[in-house]
Amino acid sequence: MLKKVALACMIGAALVSVAGCGSSDKKDAATSDKKITVGFSVSTQNNPFFVTMANSVKVEADKLGINVKIVDAQNDSAKQANDVADLIQSKVDVLIVNPVDSAAISNSVIAANQAKIPVITIDRSSDKGDVAVHIASNNVKGGEMAAQYIIDKLGEQTPVAELEGIPGASAARERGQGFHNLADSKLKVLAKQSADFDRGKGLTVAENILQANPDIKAIFAQNDEMALGAIGAAKSANKQILIVGFDGTDDGLAAIKSGDMAATIAQQPDKMGEVGIDTAVKLAKGENVEKNIAVELKLIEK
């Protein structure tokens, strides 16, 4: 019976008084004695943006003295589902997920809900399930910023192409939505195709697009990795193409400095990771948190 009461005290949402748990002072002492463990499922570590994010998660966790378990989904939704299932089984206090696919992650979020583990999504959202906090940049606004930059530099009705990210990722949908909010009426979008946020695929897709559409003057890539691939395609085709990326990775910023890339819509993956851990600790302690936390975007050009 005592074990059941103790378990109720632990799970019972720190804010809810459970009969037999004793005074609030005793509960606070029990909470402080237990080291918080956070699980973080990151979509991939084959992208500098998410490497930075995962590193900042670890640094902030070390700074706050909490445990963190980081697992790499390798851009595979099935692997991410298995990884999250393992984290739930290990009884992490809070789960942070950077989804590969916003629809595919839904069942994992629901499973965490059923296990009474608070869920934070970061950079990309989940289509279903109860997410306690979503931390992300305003991707729609970022897409609009990219389109406006092309309009400002090359004028309205400029022929453009778009390299899209992973089709199921909320960030890809939202960046595309923002771009087309302006581009559909003020630019000529001659081609758009997914390159899965991947540099190698960005090169191949951009090569094919430029070969089929020789009039293209600008390319918006939904992340810097695809933009870097597009740079290679433009050089191979011996064309001067205005290329705009998204994320603000070190490689992207270096390409801007060298003049190969015109601009990027810079996110702050280190800030996302830091805020993710800070928020996870608050959730574990039963503190109030904001449902949506926005991380500022910046347009960076040479």
Automatic annotation (TrEMBL):
- Keywords recorded for this protein, A-Z: Signal
Alphabetical list of InterPro entries matching this protein: Peripla_BP_I, SBP_2_dom
Q: Which PROSITE patterns match?
A: PROKAR_LIPOPROTEIN
CDD domains on file: PBP1_ribose_binding
Q: Name one GO cellular component term.
A: cell envelope
Instruction: Report the main location listed first in the record.
Output: other
* Entry superkingdom: Bacteria
Q: Which residues form the Periplasmic binding protein domain?
A: 38-287
Can you say where in the cell this protein is located?
Cell envelope
* A single MF term (Gene Ontology): carbohydrate binding
* Signal peptide start and end residues: 1-19
Its family? Belongs to the bacterial solute-binding protein 2 family.
Q: What protein is this chain from? A: Ribose ABC superfamily ATP binding cassette transporter, binding protein
